[in-house]
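COMPLEX REQUEST
Ligand: heme C
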Amino acid sequence: MMIRSARTEGAQRSGRPPALSLLVLLAAAFVAGPVFADGHEGSEVDVKYRQKLMSAVGANMGAISDIVKNQMALPGHVQNHASQLVRSADLIAAAFKKEIATGATDAKPEIWKDWGEYEEAIAGFRKAAKGLEAAAASGDPAAVGPAVRTLGRSCGSCHKPFRKPKEESYKNR
Ligand code: HEC
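STATUS: Structure written out below.
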C-alpha cells in the first residue's frame, strides 16, 4: 500500500492519472497489435482458419471416397464422415463472414457480392451430407453411391462460382 500511494503521488505530481496511461497503452497495443504486426489487419488468421475448415471437409470427403471405392470393411465410417461434413457445413457461413478476397486465398469476391447464393450453396452441401448420412445409416449399400455423387456435385456447385480455379490457386503462386 505504501508503494502504491507513493506511485500515485508521483503520477499526480507529473499530471498523469495513475495507472491509466499504462492501461491506455495496453489497450492500444491490443487493438493495434493485429493491425500492425503483419499489415494484414488480422485477416491472415481468418483466411487460414476457413482454409483449415475446408481442408477438414476435403479430408472427410476423401475418406468417404476411399472407403466406397475400395469397399473397405469399415462399418459405420461413411455415416460418421458424413455426419462430420454436416457439422462442418454448420461452420462455413461464420468462417467466411469477413470479406477477404486478397492475399493467400482462393475465395472469389462473388462470395460477398452474392452472399445469399453462397448461403444456398452451403445449404445444398449440408443437405447432400445429410442425404449420405441417411443413406449410409439405411444399411442399403445401393443407396450410398448415388448419395456420394450428389455430395460431390454440391462441392462443385460452390467451388465453381465461388472459388478460384486450380490454375489460379494461391497454392501455385
Ligand atoms: C459453400 C461453398 C463451398 C462448399 C459447399 C464447399 N467448398 Fe471447398 N472451398 C470453398 C471456398 C470458398 C474455398 C477457398 C477458401 C480460401 O482459400 O479462402 C474452398 C477450399 C477448399 C479446399 C482447399 C482448402 C485449403 O487448404 O486451401 C478443399 C480441399 C475443399 N474446399 C474441399 C471441398 C470439398 C471436398 C467439398 C464438398 C464435400 C467442398 N469443399 C465444399 C467453398 C466451398
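REMARKS: The two ends are 60 Å apart (CA to CA). Residues 47, 50-51, 54-55, 57-58, 61, 92, 105-107, 118, 121-122, 125, 151, 154-155, 158-159, 162-163 surround heme C (CB under 6 Å).
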